[in-house]
Amino acid sequence: MIPFISLALALASLFVVGAHSAHFDIPQVDEVVKEAISEYSAYLHYHAPANASNSTFTTPRFTSLVALTDPPYWFADQPHQGKSAFNPDPNYVVWRNVKDYGAKGDGVTDDTAAINAAISAGGRCGPGTCASSTTTPAVVYLPAGTYLVSQPIIDYYYTQIIGNPNGRAVIKATAAFSGAAVIDADPYQSNGNQAWGATNVFYREIKNIVVDLTSIPASSAATAIHWPTAQATNLQNVQINLSQASGTQHVGLFCENGSGGWISDIVVYGGKIAFNIGSQQFTIRNVQINNAVTAINQLWDWGFTYKSLQIDNCSLGLDMSALNQTGNGQNVGSIILLDSSFTNTAIAVKTAHDTVPAPPSAGSLILENVALSNVGIAVQGGNGATILAGGSQTISAWAQGHAYLPDGNRNYEGFYGGNGRGNLAPGGKYLEQVKPAYADYTTSQVLSARSLGAKGDGVTDDTAAVQKLLTQAASAGQIAFFDAGTYKVTGTVYMPPSSRVVGESYSVIMSAGSTFSNVNNPVPVVQVGKSSDSGLIQWQEMIVSTQGSQPGAVLIEWNIAASSGSGMWDVHTRVGGFAGSNLQVAQCPTSAAPNPNCYAAHTSMHVTQGASNIYLENVWLWTADHDIDSADNTQISVYTGRGLLYESTSGPAWLYGTAVEHHSLYQYQFANTGNVVMGFIQTETPYYQPNPDARNSPYPRMASWNDPDYSTICTLGGSCDALALRILNSRGLYVYGAGLYSFFNDYSTACLAGTNCQSQILDIENSSGIYVYALSTVGTTCMLYRDGKCIAEAADNVSVFPDTIVMYQSG
Ligand SMILES: *[C@@H]1O[C@H](CO)[C@@H](O)[C@H](O)[C@H]1NC(C)=O
Ligand SMILES: *[C@@H]1O[C@H](CO)[C@@H](O)[C@H](O)[C@H]1NC(C)=O
Ligand SMILES: *[C@@H]1O[C@H](CO)[C@@H](O)[C@H](O)[C@H]1NC(C)=O
Ligand SMILES: *[C@@H]1O[C@H](CO)[C@@H](O)[C@H](O)[C@H]1NC(C)=O
Ligand SMILES: *[C@@H]1O[C@H](CO)[C@@H](O)[C@H](O)[C@H]1NC(C)=O
Ligand SMILES: *[C@@H]1O[C@H](CO)[C@@H](O)[C@H](O)[C@H]1NC(C)=O
Ligand SMILES: *[C@@H]1O[C@H](CO)[C@@H](O)[C@H](O)[C@H]1NC(C)=O
Ligand SMILES: CC(=O)N[C@H]1CO[C@H](CO)[C@@H](O)[C@@H]1O
């Protein structure tokens, strides 16, 4: 999250509430449904497993012919035993099948009310009723079918809206649809505010869904998804169909602000704008946009990394030329386009960097491995000038902005030397792994934690049951499924090779007890393989946490030499700030002196020397700065030692869309390593620092852990706060987009005015072959520090809100 910083954007006019004619044509049964019926007729007599009848709902799960067409999907077909451990209502229901709430999905019935009922039932954290909550999670499942909606589907806090990967639900707006967006993740309230502060919208997902606006007249400014969100959110495997008629006013995704975030595996057809998007930072991977007028309209940002963006048949690919209200400054800080393509598109990228070169570092741009096919202009300047020619060719590597190179620093515009990508990019593109859906698995290939006897109630010691689940599932080739809940463990749980581990609504493994109490004797909570292990590890949609004082807890220790296909998707750590953690406002109020009861973890994640093939996608390692379950996001002081310590000697590693926040010694540290690609990486320094500062961290320096020695590092004067990124004795690190932020000095943002909340934030020691693209920093006087010297001063590289350099190459 970030503190409230008003960006004073005139956004209201961008988000026109749809006003449609009153006429309403009753649509015929949709082609998709017909097709689904014939395609899946084999399943007409398919029934849910007997255990599913244990559902809390009395309504039968299958209520109509169309419902019978939902193809098998283990996630939906298994018994639903998810719970919210710290919700006071023992009968609170996590799993909701929209059909149990009356939705038909028949392409004829208006399902708006039924879907909204499925989302809102159970006293959840709704718009205008609460600031945020972890105790009312929900999984809202839409079986295959076409769901007509005439008004917005209002997404609630901590919700996963999930369709069937074997037959994605189509949410189809009626011709007379009226409202801000077909799915609204943060609806505007009558007071003009968003329902939830966009930078605090955590733990959200929409996946396996098609949103279809093609019945809405092309002339209506209709929007498919309104998505101002923050960390631990994702859109995945979503298709958006907009009008392709000439003059179309449709918009696919509208995101006016927030702090995220992850978007992947998206296809959009048509529209005036496919993505109308602005936020601090985002990582966006594998997005295809076809037949839009403007594919991406970048409203503003500090830094966005687009990987495998495929734009086809649009007039304009990416418009990053937005100006601020007075028209004399740019709104977009920086953009990276990696391994992307533009086809049959007049202008690939439009910038204002040349004509409105203010602030001086705004509009920083990296194009690396971007294929053009029948493109008019690759990069067009503000006055229409061609800055980089189009055609049919591949742009190897091109940059615009302030560059710091071995031969000096300068305002750069042009091609740059490519990096040796090596085994990070088999086939030329940096490797990508789609989050496994296990779409062809049956329920017999799933082992449930609760069925095996784990309680997941946040109280019972589940160590043995969790271990049994992980061991048994791996040896049987089954999915180890953590039904929604909080699984308390008092010792290490070990994830063996061949693990496929899946959570539900971000199931939590929470450590407690004396095993993890020794600050000088760190012990892993979840051990991903042992140091001699090799094999497959796939882990998704979970959280690892601690309860109370746990200064010896290493939440995730990754040791395994992983085989191809391995990875960690949407797995997060959360230290403090939630119900049940005993690290909330009551226990850990912001205080003048650190409270040992709030020393909550030694390290969030440790990748050890023997680990290899480490693939992370959308991973947020968070020490809470505020209490999500307080009435108004009240700040707290919770202390952890280290963020991500990465020590794999060989790699390769891919860290896409990772963030590490509020650890007292550092956020990221790479020691004695290399062969890592990452982007976008985002950090925040603890808000309490420099009280105490990094030299006086409650976590004593451990030389064997390569902890920084701040007594020698802090030579610049100013606050000696935790480094965001420390690179030690390493070579071959490629950072595509970094946002390293320091917003506070002892809970005061006054230091932002002088850009001196701390004096250094990125430290490179005894290393070479380090490449950092689109580096943005906030609140630090020196942006990049190497072997005792400041290389890039913030004052020389002022951008929209942060300070930015487009490129650093260490030589
Ligand atoms: C389903 O309910 C029956 C009867 O109440 C019970 O014996 C059984 O254990 C339940 N199964 C599950 C998976 O909860
Ligand atoms: C996000 O934008 C809305 C609309 O302009 C504004 O009310 C809100 O304060 C903004 N939030 C943040 C965190 O900037
Ligand atoms: C969405 O549009 C694509 C391309 O026009 C089409 O192939 C697909 O069938 C459409 N899907 C729906 C649900 O209309
Ligand atoms: C290109 O986009 C336009 C506008 O959406 C559409 O009418 C046309 O059919 C598209 N061409 C192809 C080949 O898809
Ligand atoms: C627009 O940007 C320019 C250049 O940074 C700045 O001087 C001006 O104050 C900005 N205007 C607004 C309304 O923020
Ligand atoms: C139903 O649940 C029981 C106990 O939880 C389990 O042993 C059995 O395999 C389950 N049956 C099916 C069809 O999933
Ligand atoms: C510098 O790095 C190299 C290679 O990583 C290492 O061998 C050497 O010991 C390091 N020197 C110091 C002083 O740490
Ligand atoms: C490397 C580089 O381009 N540095 C520039 C930083 O910004 C100042 C003023 O804004 C310029 O004078 C420098 O040339």
Automatic annotation (TrEMBL):
Coiled coil: none annotated. It comes from the Eukaryota. Residues 1-21 form the signal peptide. This is Rhamnogalacturonase A/B/Epimerase-like pectate lyase domain-containing protein. Keywords: Signal. It comes from Cladophialophora chaetospira. One of its GO terms (molecular function) is polygalacturonase activity. It holds the Pfam family Pect-lyase_RHGA_epim. Gene3D superfamilies: Single-stranded right-handed beta-helix, Pectin lyase-like. The keyword Zinc-finger does not apply. Residues 95-319, 448-560 form the Rhamnogalacturonase A/B/Epimerase-like pectate lyase domain.
